[in-house]
Amino acid sequence: MQTVVIGGGICGLAVAHRLARAGTPVTLLESTGQLGGLGTFFPWHDRWVERFYHCVMPSDDDLLALLEEVGLRDHVRWERTSMGMIVEGRHYPFNSALDLLKFTALGVVDRVRFGAVSLLLRRLGKGKDLDNLRTEDWLRGLYGDRVWRDLFGPLFGSKFGAAFGDVPALYLWQRLGRERNVAVRGYPHGGYKTIIDALRASIESHGGIVRTSAPVRVLRNGSVELDGETIEADRIVSTLPLPALRQVADAKLAPLLPQVNLRYQGVVNALFVLRQPLSGHYWAPVLRSGTEFDGVVEMSPLTGPVDGRHFAYVMRYTDRDSPLFQEDERTIAARWTEQLRSLHPGLDVEEVHVFRAPFVEPVYPVGYLAQRPAIEVTGTPLLLATTAHVYPSVTSWNSSVGLANRVSEIILRTAASMSPDGEPVP
Ligand SMILES: Cc1cc2nc3c(=O)[nH]c(=O)nc-3n(C[C@H](O)[C@H](O)[C@H](O)COP(=O)(O)OP(=O)(O)OC[C@H]3O[C@@H](n4cnc5c(N)ncnc54)[C@H](O)[C@@H]3O)c2cc1C
Fold first, then answer.
1. What whole-number distance in Å separates Cα of residue 207 and Cα of residue 26?
2. What range(s) does the Amine oxidase domain occupy (predicted)?
3. pLDDT recorded at residue 176
4. Class in CATH terms, 96-179
5. Lowest mean pLDDT: which of 162-176, 193-207, 345-359, 401-415?
6. What superfamily does domain 3-38+60-77+192-262+365-416 belong to in CATH?
């Protein structure tokens, strides 16, 4: 039983790894020249650096189990990291009760309320139908109008745009379960490329085929068409975001695809190579400070300096049709350098690299659990493994691996009930 996997990001690689290890013939097709998807990297000095900031959390059980299988679990270096907050150009540490007391961006009463509610928030959400509750309604009710307007609105709006208030509270609740202000975070020794290389090696050593620069141009009900080549398949796994999938599906397959209409957020992110560290916090949201980016991720607290340099990413989640997303990289780099300098005067910038991705994750609507598309597309050999399927889990390598596990289990179960010539076993 031949399976074709479309997309060589972590999800596609994890599916192909599982199938190959189980002895099922699998071919993975990646359109670009590089495996890794949103976790890809570029050469810098004698090493590889991620285009987009990435870290592992200790609760990433599915990812850590996969790393164990390919002998990389012990390659993850763990560090205790902290969070800052930049509001109206002022820098605050944001990790302890004392930090909160000194957080003058909120009034005294709101600070106390913020602290008390935040401590209880996970518990307050338990047993509630948070999927059908707007985040804004939930948080405004608990924290009050000012905290929503001055802090949460802009903070979470930076991730989902103006629609954040409409995203189900369940998304936020799940996120709080994964992340804390002071958190142990992990980063693989040698970078994310080490994981990608190990997965490719595992797939190929078990007889699977991995092809890069192999864009799927047309997806049919039972075959994929590349440039000048058609591959027939008993099972096809697509890891493409739904809008990208619709673009390649042929006229017969398109009406069978999930009809759910989701808006996707993309991202513009710049990596600054600096000669000095910034603040020592891994992550700092930036609110009302005259910058277009709305967060800073500083890698040095996690990875240490690299060749005496410090890497800091700044990011803006935005629609792929927005003017910013369309703008040329040099203009963004020049403007964002000035904006970062306005927050950190005297900053010594050595290089700036701007990267963007059109599809990071969907803006999930309220009540999404009932609309979430099924993995198996009825009447076709197609299985879907996309960020539209990981909800309510947070979009991450961990949730992609978890989804890949579910998808490969379905395929292996079907394969087990087939005879070698593809007929169902009675
Ligand atoms: C700025 C940023 C920060 C992040 N931080 C973290 C983090 O700290 N920790 C974490 O765990 N996750 C993080 N993530 C999320 C994580 O990167 C994604 O959830 C994950 O990489 C998604 O993997 P995927 O395989 O589902 O999709 P993708 O990585 O998008 O892979 C899809 C692949 O399909 C290929 N493709 C597209 N069209 C075709 C075609 N027609 N034919 C063949 N191939 C095709 C693409 O080139 C791509 O390689 C971050 C993401 C971003 C953008």
1. 8
2. 10-348
3. 76
4. mainly alpha
5. 162-176
6. FAD/NAD(P)-binding domain (3.50.50.60)
